[in-house]
Each structure stands twice: as C-alpha cells, then as structure tokens.
Amino acid sequence: MEKYRDNSGRKKEIAPLQEAFEELLKAYRLKDKYDERMLIQAWPEMMGKTVASRTTSVYIKEKKLFVKVTSGAIKNEMSMNRSKIIEIIEQKFEKGVITDIVFL
To answer: Where are the domains positioned within the chain?
Structure first.
C-alpha cells in the first residue's frame, strides 16, 4: 500500500546546484548567451593585466569574438597567436563558445 505518491515529475536524485543551473540554461536556450557573458567577464583574467589594460572593448557576435585593442604591437602579437587564444578560451569554457577572433 502506497501511502504517499510522488506525482511532481521531478527527478528523484539530488543534483548539485551547478548541474541544475546548467540544465536550466539549456532548457531555456540561454546557455550560449550565458557562456558569452562569462567569457567577456573572464577576458582580463585569461589575457593578463597588460592585454586587459589595452583592451577597450570585447563583444561576441555570431560566435565571433571581437576585441578592440589600443596598442598596435599587442594587436599584432595577438593576431599571430589567434589559435593559442582560442585554445585558452576553450580550456576555460567548452569548445564552440566562439569560432573566431577579430582584432579591431
């Protein structure tokens, strides 16, 4: 005899908060936008003080990361190391958050 029945339709196992948050983002199709925002916020941490202090704008459009840099030398250095920067981003975030970087 079942005294209490769970009709809530919820998962029985307890998911850690991070997993629950990830599932929520996926369910509402917000994961890409969330990852993009987190990447923009993490830019100074990933690139370091020198690059961050010379970066005036960072935004993402259609999976391309646009970075406006005030120093021509740093812009040139970053252009030559584009694949390394993408690799750094993919280590911190999952693959596919961005597909290319454009330096302005």
So the answer is: 31-103
Per-block average pLDDT, block size 10, for the chain (104 residues)? 56 72 81 89 94 94 95 94 93 88 94
Name the pTM for this structure. 0.74
CA distances from 66 to 11, 69, 71, 76, 93 (A): 40, 10, 15, 14, 17
Which CATH number is 31-103 given? 3.30.300
Q: For the chain, give the longest Cα–Cα distance.
A: 76
Whole-number Å distance between alpha carbons of 22 and 19: 5
